[in-house]
Design brief:
630 residues; alpha/beta; ABC transporter transmembrane region fold; Rossmann fold; 2 domains; 6-stranded mixed beta sheet; 4-stranded antiparallel beta sheet; 19 helices; 65% helix; elongated
């Protein structure tokens, strides 16, 4: 058994870890139901009333049969006694159904409310987990775990309240009647049959549960592979790997098929064993009752009553195996969802944390910051710098130098191991995460959009923004003209992860929503990397305008985009090598100057190549005209 916060692979089909026992899982469900305690109590009362009425039916049936054993010519008894008993019999049958429906009507709100609360709590907890968890998760399998967990809540409540508890109530009532009204043989035959039946059912179901778990794990794995493959549709096409993806998916489907076949085979064995026990008990009870009628100890009505009791008992017991299996599976599914909820938050607000008190142009400081994603690989080594209020600081350097990590730490996706990051002198670990993130806007290098409209994705920067504000942000990001040129305009769907848009269009949407948010701190992480040169220059002007009087951190590879920054920091391997303005760094003739020279040479070479290609196109296009004139 694994404890809370332990390492857990939710897609390991070889071992299915359980974090808690079944009783502990049930105990965690109880608080959600106790929000509706009066409905729970009313439902239990209706269950009791329904079962009392149900047990009363065979008793009344006995009296009805006995009442028919009358003397010839007794017309009054024929008219009065049987008709009254028939009316009472029908009333009890109606009462059973009525109380059952009232139970479901009263308890439906509790069931759905508990399922909703658990699903919402899980969703909120997942959003509260660190970036590390979401980078390592497998979306397909995780969503299946949540889906089955929510359904497990409904199934667990339904089966326990509507099947198990009523059956136990009815068994207790029937055993009491048999013990009081008849000889001990009826009681002990019934008890022996019930004990044997329940023991056989539980032991067989426990043995079968592992096959069901294997089937569920294979199902989650297959779902994960299918979702992952479809999300990466273009990559599959690029490398012509449709057949490879189909084989991977089919391997999981084959494991699912084998597990389900085992489950069905063992279910047949379970059902056969149950029927054998039921049939044996029924024969023994009826033999005893028939013998009592022959000996004159019992009436014909007693025989009918005993038979009716046995049928009423064994009909629900006949489904006990399936019900117990479903309850066990629901507990397993619910426990898997609780396991997700038990994932400890790597980044959590301290008790009593207050909101960030942030000015319109705050000062941001990194003070001797050291950080590593993994202990064996240090990313930042004592990084210290300041972004003065209302100024722009740019960070440049090769890939892997730790530039984007600075943005992640400022957003508190991770907490620093040593040193601290402050905004207006406040350590961001001492204030709430939500207040820190409200104060920061980011244009990321890799823009991911919701599968919704362009208007929705821009408005995501500030909930409740008007259409005019959305369009103003789009104009500032130089994407308005493109949007209105599409058939549906701002109501155009962008597709899964925004894949219907080009890289440049997605990046301009990201710029627009950040401009709409209008926070006091801005982060531009390669904000124009997907744009062509003409649009890049235009957007740079807009970004500079947006950053006026705001504190901005610019992360860039192309040095031409940061020449006007108030300070440029050159990083490599998690350390600051140089710092200063563009002119100062060129005068140092160090790493920045070499990077600048290399990029200028590369750009000049590209411009020269483009010029030659245009010239060549012009010459080739003139040849046909010369030939025509000749």
């Amino acid at each position: 058994m694994r404890g809370r916060g332990s390492s857990f692979d939710p897609h390991d089909t070889k071992s299915i870890p359980r974090t808690t026992s079944d009783w502990q899982t049930l105990g965690r469900l109880v608080p959600y139901l106790m929000q509706y305690k009066w409905r729970v109590m009313a439902a239990l009362a209706f269950v009791l009333c329904a079962k009392i009425a149900n047990v009363g039916v065979p008793i009344l049936l006995k009296h009805l049969v006995d009442a028919l054993s009358i003397k010839p010519g007794d017309a009054a008894a024929i008219l009065v006694v049987p008709l009254g008993l028939l009316f009472a019999y029908g009333l009890l049958r109606l009462s059973t159904s009525l109380f059952t429906e009232l139970r479901e009507l009263v308890f439906a709100k509790a069931t759905q409310g508990a399922a909703r609360s658990i699903a919402l709590t899980t969703f909120q907890h997942l959003h509260g987990l660190s970036l590390r968890f979401h980078l390592e998760r497998q979306t397909g399998g995780m969503t299946r775990d949540i889906e089955r967990g929510v359904k497990g809540v409904e199934s667990l409540i339904s089966y326990s309240l509507y099947s198990i508890f009523p059956t136990f109530v009815e068994v207790a009532l029937v055993l009491g009647i048999l013990a009081v009204k008849f000889d001990a043989w009826f009681f002990w035959i019934t008890v022996a049959a019930l004990v044997l039946y329940v023991t056989f059912t539980v032991s067989m179901t426990e043995w079968r549960t592992r096959f069901r778990r294997e089937a569920n794990m294979a199902d989650s794995t297959a779902h994960t592979k299918a979702i992952d493959s479809l999300l990466n549709y273009e990559t599959v096409k690029y490398f012509n790997n449709e057949a490879f993806e189909s084989r991977r998916y089919d391997e999981s489907l084959e494991k699912l098929r084998a597990a389900r076949l085992k489950s069905q085979t063992t279910l047949s064995l379970l059902n056969a064993g149950q029927q054998l026990i039921i049939a044996t008990a029924l024969v023994a009870m009826l033999w005893r009752a028939t013998q009592g009628v022959v000996d004159g100890r019992l009436t014909l009505g007693d025989l009918v009553m005993i038979n009716a009791f046995m049928i009423q008992l064994y009909i629900p017991l006949n489904f006990l195996g399936a019900i117990y299996r479903e309850i066990k599976q629901s507990l397993t599914d619910l426990d898997r969802m609780f396991t997700l909820m038990d994932k400890e938050r790597e980044v959590a607000d301290k008790p009593g944390s207050t909101d960030l008190a942030c000015s319109a142009s705050p000062t941001v400081r990194f003070e001797d910051v050291q950080f590593a994603y993994e202990p064996a690989r240090q990313i930042l080594h004592g990084v210290s710098f300041e972004i003065p209020a209302g100024k722009t600081v740019a960070v440049v350097g090769p890939s892997g130098s730790g530039k984007s990590t600075l943005a992640r730490l400022l957003f508190r996706f991770y907490d620093v191991q040593e040193g601290r990051i402050t905004i207006d002198g406040q350590d961001i670990r001492e204030v709430t995460q939500s207040s820190v993130r409200r104060a920061i806007g980011i244009v990321p290098q890799d823009t991911v959009l919701f599968n919704d409209t362009i208007a929705y994705n821009i408005a995501y920067g500030r909930a409740g923004a008007t259409r005019e504000e959305i369009e103003a942000a789009a104009k500032a990001a130089r994407i308005h003209d493109f949007i209105v040129s599409t058939p549906k305009g701002y109501d155009t769907m962008v597709g899964e992860r925004g894949l219907k848009l080009s890289g440049g269009e997605k990046q301009r949407v990201a710029i627009a929503r950040t401009l709409l948010k209008n926070p006091p701190i801005l982060i531009f992480d390669e904000a124009t990397s997907a744009l062509d040169s003409a649009n890049e220059r235009a957007i740079q002007n807009e970004l500079r305008s947006a950053a006026q009087n705001k504190t901005a951190l610019v992360i860039a590879h192309r040095l031409s985009t940061v020449v006007e920054a108030h300070e440029i920091i050159v990083m490599d391997a998690g350390r600051i090598l140089e710092r200063g303005t563009h002119a100062q760094l060129l005068a140092l003739n160090g790493r920045y100057a070499r990077m600048w020279t290399l990029q200028r040479e590369s750009q000049d070479s590209k411009d020269s190549k483009d010029s030659k290609e245009k010239s060549g196109d012009a010459e080739s296009s003139s040849e046909p005209l010369s030939a025509v004139s000749a």
